[in-house]
Amino acid sequence: MTEPLVVITDSDLPGDEAERILGAAGLRVRRASCRTAEEVVEAARDATALLVQWAPVTASVLDRLDRLRFVSRLGIGHDMIDVAAATARGVAVANTPDYCVQEVAAHTIAMVMALARRLPVLDRAVRDGRWSATGDGAGALRPSRATVAVVGFGRIGSLAAAHAAALGFRVVVHDPNVAEAAVRAAGHEPVELDEALAAADVVTLHVPLTDRTRHLLNGAAIARMRPGALIVNTCRGGLIDEAALAGALASGRVAGAALDVFEEEPLPAGSPLRTAPGVLLTPHAAWYSPDSLAELPRRAARQIADFLRGGPVPSIVNPGYAAGRTGGGR
């Protein structure tokens, strides 16, 4: 009997830990470098499972992978996978939800504090020959007099909220998927989105990118924020309308933004965010530490092996996939 085939559609991570784990589980492994849906189909026609970093797994792709049973995302977000289509076809999808929670929360708070204390502006002022704490530092925040709005209260959002509260910030939380009692139990205030935007000195985003959340911060939402507010995004670039944000930064409506993620990555050379005032940019690096780099491929590969041997996979994001399989989805 031929062992099941796992196709690694794409990965820019160093090393071969995923291949080693999958091979030790008795699975065949094929590594590809897919960027398009057609390349995924070509590489994975006979695959039982996929290990996906950024390659698109669309409904059309799923229709043509007749043997596919499981997709493991090399990361937390899974917006490159059509989860609804996978569910309808009886294909399980799992992400790797907790490999970098500490790193992203720490990166978030570093960005919050850099903006709150005007570090990018002060750094540039010194390099340009100025030496004025009260001039270039105008607008610096005292944490105990400032509010951080955490939009999304999952693993990362809840830890970022705890960090912000520990620094003395008032923390308000918007997450319609989390019970208000749970937010209050953590010591924070649950609020609606409009209230969060209106109250916040700093807004930090921690929600998945879906059709509903795309451009969550658009021009209208930014207009509802208090003048001079700050924005932090370590989640998904598509949550923010970048053109609207650039305009708000240029006008001074938004005093600063710290961004680790972008609608197009790498950030295009011509993006107005590169030259907008008060902006701190990092290259989708919030997830990274040597520890998280080691854990990511290990966890993503192990859950493939666990699933294919019939073991539990707690990180499956579409538990209804089994109904699709029994209902004739495959």
From TrEMBL:
GO molecular function: NAD binding; oxidoreductase activity, acting on the CH-OH group of donors, NAD or NADP as acceptor; transcription corepressor activity
GO annotation (BP), single: amino acid biosynthetic process
Domain D-isomer specific 2-hydroxyacid dehydrogenase catalytic: 15-318
Domain D-isomer specific 2-hydroxyacid dehydrogenase NAD-binding stretches: 109-286
Protease found in the keyword field: no
Superkingdom, taxonomy of origin: Bacteria
Keywords: Amino-acid biosynthesis, NAD, Oxidoreductase
PANTHER family: D-ISOMER SPECIFIC 2-HYDROXYACID DEHYDROGENASE FAMILY PROTEIN (AFU_ORTHOLOGUE AFUA_6G10090)
Protein family per UniProt: Belongs to the D-isomer specific 2-hydroxyacid dehydrogenase family.
Protein name in UniProt: D-3-phosphoglycerate dehydrogenase
